[in-house]
Amino acid sequence: MIARRHPVEMGLEGRSSHTVPELLSMTRERRRESYRAELRELRARWLDLLESEIDPSSRPIRPQYIMAVLNDLLDQGAVIALDVGENGWWFGRNFQMRGTQRLIFSGYLGSMGFGLPAAIAAQLEFPDREVACITGDGGFSMVMAEFLTAVKYHLPVRVFVLNNRSLGMIMQEQLVEGFPTWQTELQNFDFAEFAENCGGRGIQVTEPDKLEDAVSDALGTDGPVVVDIETDPRRFI
């Protein structure tokens, strides 16, 4: 698959543990201070833009604010299972990943519903680490019966559902291509009540000023919990 996305002058195939040291031995250090200064400026402008978008007072709760709160409150050693959908866009754009955290995601497979099963597997593999699933209502509703598995084995998986009552990524892709939105609306559902009916913990958040306490509460819960967060699918428009 070398050069599948972009033409290359020379394609290398082999174990990275062997090829990378060989390549490094052929390089010499260059310090371009003007270029490094330009990158620092661009990074600062980008972070300022992300900060300006958060708006902790806006209702429905802005996805940027949800990611900011999760970024502040998730453990430094958390394992994050990311579902496929608009929630993945917001995570990749706005979450500041730490080197001590670990991310599990579907990548190019685009498998909606990946988040919860991945979080359950991560919690079984790392019982002493905080495990969070970040998902949307579309992806979660495909596999939400698996929450019973977390309840059955008392796995303290924290599920954060960005509930915009739509298949948000599909809606945006249709708009970008100039098509009318079609069959992207989802049936309204109370995921917090569902979690309670399963025997776990359910927390519903509709007001931005309640979000931080809700996330802190969920992270301190001894057992599986779903945080159903009302958000808005129109924030890319």
From TrEMBL:
Name listed for the protein in its UniProt record: Thiamine pyrophosphate enzyme TPP-binding domain-containing protein
UniProt keyword terms in alphabetical order: Membrane, Transmembrane, Transmembrane helix
Transmembrane spans: 103-124
Organism (species): Methanothermobacter marburgensis (strain ATCC BAA-927 / DSM 2133 / JCM 14651 / NBRC 100331 / OCM 82 / Marburg)
Taxonomic path: Archaea, Methanobacteriati, Methanobacteriota, Methanomada group, Methanobacteria
Thiamine pyrophosphate enzyme TPP-binding domain sequence ranges: 83-229
GO molecular function, one term: thiamine pyrophosphate binding
GO biological process annotation, one example: organic acid metabolic process
